Amino acid sequence: MKKVYIYDTTLRDGAQSEGISFSVKDKIRIAQRLDELGVDFVEGGWPGSNPKDDEFFREAPLQLKMKKAKLVAFGSTRRAGRKTASDPVIKGLLNARTKYLTIFGKSWDLHVKAVLRTTLKENLRMIEDSVRYLKKRGRRVIFDAEHFFDGYRENAGYAMDTLKAACDGGAEVVVLCDTNGGALTDQVFEIVEETAGKVKIPLGIHVHNDADMAVANSIAAVQAGCNHVQGTFNGYGERCGNANLVSIMPTLKFKLGMDCLPEFAFKELTEASRYIAEISNVRQLDAQPYVGKSAFAHKAGVHVNAILKNSRTYEHIAPEKVGNMRRMIISELSGKSSIMKRAGDLGYRIKKTSEKAGKILSHVQDLEKKGYQFELAEASLSLLMRRASEVFKKYFEMKEFRVIVEKRGDGPVISEATIKVEIGGKSRHTVSLGDGPVHALDRALRKSLIGLYPSLKEMHLSDFRVRVLDEKAATAARVRVLIQSQDKSDSWWTVGVSENIIEASWLALKDSFEYKFVKDQKKKRK
Predict the structure, then answer these.
(1) In terms of C-beta density within 10 A (0-12 exposed, 13-18 middle, 19 or more buried), how is residue 269 classed?
(2) Rounded to whole angstroms, how far apart are CA atoms 88 and 77?
(3) DSSP code per residue over 88-140
(4) Are 204 and 229 in contact (CB under 8 A)?
């Protein structure tokens, strides 16, 4: 079994994504999780380039308890015309006190002439001198050949000379970089294969995703001879991102049979991906391969029917292998198989041949024609099934509501909600102010119910989304409102649709409260 070494650069390359800014504490937490997952190398940043990275390398030995991963400091070769010993970048690398260092150098003659503005020979000396100097001081050096594929296509001889210079200096791995991210897969395979036949030390691959081919190119590079793969978690990185290790690693393992992570780690891959997304303050894409929420979600009735008989019919891998789960989505495209499976997931027993399954399917299809969607609003779907499958307790019934939004002069906008609900045959009439109309409705309803249901004190609304369903209808358009609520132990989404945004909000709000009551009732039974 071929061993492929995984080199994660989320803390440096990933941090160059728009919208990502890691604190030192964030970087420590991510590095620790990557080590627990079993990656081979964690690149911590560029010491000397900014105070945050300097602090990270000071704190890492004190706070990190890494069992497998090797912490790596990143930098460049010495500058043109400088002595290696006095170069500030080289000094910064040594000050990081990591056993492993990665330095990059130019392998494209265009960059040497136009960017470094030095001679081709001096660039080769810069590479060899820098590697040798660091090697003599006890460091193990990885060399990143920046822009290697562009350089190879235009001047293959010189690109190879840069690798030779790194090898002569004592580099342990030379990494071929598609820094512009524009190489095609067949080009990557061919160039890596040619290079592997001429270089005696291990080859690595570092690919950017500007042509949306970074994962494919990384896999092709491994097939052609590389045994070291650099990338970031979730594909974070500058411009269009870096090669996504979360896709690369299971592909290497389960498609090609290569050793890249411990067996247990793959079952934690989804959790780790979401953990790092959360720290990065980036919403994970639902459709992200392997680990996304939709990666194993099935909506079409034909698909669901087949999946229930044999999961291989519409899944390229078992979701459990990467710590994900299969989801059956109820929609207008669903069949009775979907209803039966989803009802079982939610704790309701409905036979495929029963009238209830047909009734639920018909109701869902009617609602989706009006603009409802239940992919995210599973709490509303659960209530719909409960109402169809058993005697549903009406916790309260709305009789009327009124919302007034008022602004006087330069004062703040005031929202006031007045509601009349019936609870156990008795009417309750409450009024409340709020920051907005939905907030006012929420507070008024809460005021009516909290005496009977004190657990409402621990529940609050955490998100609110509005989608216009027919933009051509302008202000008369139907809107779909999604509300997320949460308590101490859980969070859930509910949905409402109407031409009136307040009514749509009320419908979603009503489901949110009823779901909370049902959830609490189930806990009491247990």
Answers:
(1) buried
(2) 10
(3) HHHHHHHHTT-SEEEEEEE-SHHHIIIII-S-HHHHHHHHHHHHHHHHHTT-E
(4) yes
Please indicate whether the domains covering 389-395+458-526 and 403-452 agree at the CATH topology level: yes
Beta-carbon contacts of 112 under 8 Å, excluding residues fewer than 6 positions away, are 106, 118, 119, 120, 123
Residue 304 has pLDDT above 80, yes or no: no
Question: For residue 103, what are the β-bridge partners?
Answer: 75, 143
Domain edges within the chain: 5-280, 297-369, 389-395+458-526, 403-452
Write out the two tokens for 47: 């010491």
Nearest to 240 by CA among 265, 207, 275: 207
CATH architecture assigned to 403-452: 2-Layer Sandwich (3.30)
From residue 436, how far is each of 221, 405, 432, 440 by CA, in Å? 55, 8, 11, 6
pLDDT band at 355 (very low <50, low <70, confident <90, very high): low
Q: What is the Cα–Cα distance from 363 to 332, expressed in whole angstroms? A: 9
Residues belonging to the chain: 526
Instruction: Give the rounded percent of residues in the chain with a pLDDT score beyond 70.
Output: 87
Rounded to whole angstroms, how far apart are CA atoms 74 and 8?
12
Asked if 38 and 262 count as a contact pair (C-beta separation under 8 A), the reply is yes
**Full-prediction pTM beyond 0.85?**
no
Of 213, 208, 262, 216, give the one whose Cα is nearest residue 6.
262
CATH fold of the domain at 5-280? TIM Barrel (3.20.20)
* Lowest-confidence segment of 80-84, 221-225, 443-447, 472-476 by average pLDDT: 472-476
User: CA-to-CA distance for 226 and 284, rounded, in angstroms?
Assistant: 29
**pLDDT per residue as tens digits for the range 403-454:** 999 988 888 888 999 999 998 888 999 999 998 999 999 999 999 999 888 9
Amino acid at 498: S
The CATH classification number of 389-395+458-526 equals 3.30.160.340
Distance (Å) of CA 112 to CA 75, 106, 123, 152, 179: 17, 6, 7, 14, 15
Over the stretch 222-237, which tens digit does the pLDDT of each residue have?
999 999 999 999 999 9
Q: Which residue has the tokens 């989801």?
A: 327
